[in-house]
Amino acid sequence: MFSVSCPKCGSKDVMLLPTNEYVCKKCGHRWPMPQADYTWIEVEIKKAKLFEKYIDAPVDSCEELVSQLLKELDEKNARLLAAKILLQRAERRRTTPAELKKLYDDAERCFQ
């Protein structure tokens, strides 16, 4: 369970007001309740949409795929998604061991 303490005096005798503020019962200090950051959800939804868009696209190399994904994602997310796409492609295709190794190696380059 999450425990709140007063940032001024350290007391744990804190109350939440209907105004979404905390108030310390010991010293009377008030501070706003932190708001949750949900921007990560937007990024995850965007990544899911991009995965569907590029999973069957004719882009075959990590570099090409990353350059396309960088138009909508930061570099870290673009590289991770590119690797995921390439690995999924490798698993979907019926390839020879040599082709499979090439696909896995290309996906590995995305992490660098």
From TrEMBL:
Pfam families: Zn_Ribbon_TF. Residues 59-93 form a coiled coil. It comes from the Archaea. Residues 5-42 form the TFIIB-type domain. InterPro entries: Znf_TFIIB. Keywords: Coiled coil. This is TFIIB-type domain-containing protein.
